[in-house]
Amino acid sequence: MDHRIRTKVIVLAASLFLMFGWQTAEAAYPRLLMVYGKLPKPLVVRDAYEIADILEGSSDGVDRDRLQVRPYFELALFWGNDWNRYVDEGKPVDRLKPEDVTPFSNIPIHGKFYPACRAAGRSH
């Protein structure tokens, strides 16, 4: 799935969750977000508000063709009650691997995060 479409699906899913009465970021975003690749070890974000900040700030309007030359990190998104239970039971998130994610309806479970990059969006 294309990065922009993936971002739109995530934002749409979040909007639908909020429209139907859930009032916190915990109801609208993955329970865990793993950032990996080009890192010494994966970083697992478990705070719902930090995950929301990462996902909402992930689109800087760069042309898709320019993304091929941009640095990025891989993402694994852990959605659903199984992962809520995993965290609530105090299981170690630092032992998770990207391939541990499980399908969650038709919502993406893998993606890429392109951090802000000087001059990345400029036309030359």
Radius of gyration: 15 Å
Q: What is the helix tally?
A: 3
Give the overall average pLDDT: 77
Q: Point out poorly predicted stretches.
A: 16-26
Number of strands: 4
Give a structural overview:
The structure is a single chain. The chain has 124 residues and is of the alpha+beta class. It has one domain (3-113). The protein has helices spanning 3-19, 48-56, 81-88; strands at residues 32-36, 43-45, 73-78, 110-113. It has a 4-stranded antiparallel β-sheet with strand order 2-1-3-4. It is globular.
Features:
four-stranded antiparallel β-sheet
Write a concise synopsis of the structure shown:
The chain is built from three helices and four strands, in the order H-E-E-H-E-H-E. With 124 residues, the protein is an alpha+beta fold.
